[in-house]
Amino acid sequence: MTALASAETPARKRSRSPYKPHGLTWALLRVHRSALWFWLLYVAVTAGVILWAYGPGATAAMDELAASGCRDGGGPDLGCDMLGLAGNRWDSGVVLGSLLVFFAPFLIAAWAGGSLIGRELEDRTAQLAWTQSVSPVRWLAAKLALPAVLITAGMLLLTVLHRLMWATTGELRQGTYNWYDSQVFEPNGTLAIAHALLGLALGVLAGLVARRSLPALGVGIVGMGIVVQQLQSLRPHLWPAETQESKGEYPDHVGMTVEEGSYTSTGARLPYLECGDRAKCLADNDVVGMYRDYHPASHFWPLQLMETGILLALATVAALISFALIRRRTGAAV
Fold first, then answer.
1. Diameter of the chain by CA atoms?
2. Of 34, 32, 26, 25, nearest to 142 (Cα)?
3. Could you give the 3-state DSSP secondary structure of residue 289?
4. pLDDT tens digits for range 105-154
5. CA pair distance 61, 85, nearest whole angstrom
6. pTM (2 d.p.)
7. Virtual CA dihedral for 25, 26, 30, 32, nearest 10 degrees?
């Protein structure tokens, strides 16, 4: 009777919590949990450095300026343009925080190439996963999607904190940092996130091409470095510049300089003329003034968005090439 009742009783199925990760997501988190903890720690340390520079570090530096009598409205004036001990500590915090944000995409590219893809192909754990219920294309999609979400969340937090620090320390950084300096321009907008996503895409592509961890790690870093260097040189030309002209010396620097030189009475432009007898040299070349093409601070967002679009387009191309490559090698359609 008991046996019959037991047989008629439907077997209980374990209920799976809808909030618990499973399948590819869970496997990816377990395999790369060390990288996840490192990323969380990296974001926490970077955020801590930036918050210190925004709060206690900036407060101590401002108090030092006030105590030395160098604080006069807009900032240090002549004779007070050197930061003291507290100011130097604050400056070190600003530099360190900005560098940690700047180098994050390079670390992401190295990890994506060496560990996320290269090592699994080298150890053949990826091939083992493909023989189970996971297709190569789904495997690669998970390798790109989950890290992209975590990377975007972390970089978004650091960008917001960096902008907060930059916006509230104007008196201390006057004459020291400019909005167009790379260590300021890149962490202060959408570029930090775009760089990080490009690092992920380039690292994944490097891992698929090299199929070994160490070569993929190196290719990911080098590829990221080449892109960053080329875009930094291209940056001033991504948006139409404004022009200043002067009849005497060059106009004052008021932004990111694109080009400068001399112009003639006909409006023709000449490079800067280095002459011993300047007056005679200018007269002989019909030079009537100096010009400077530049970007004012109001061009920050147009330049940011243009460069961000290029980076995201490159990341998309790298991801598409990765999918095409894995389909070609495995013959997988889905």
1. 119
2. 25
3. strand
4. 999 999 999 888 888 888 887 777 777 777 888 888 888 999 999 999 99
5. 8
6. 0.84
7. 10
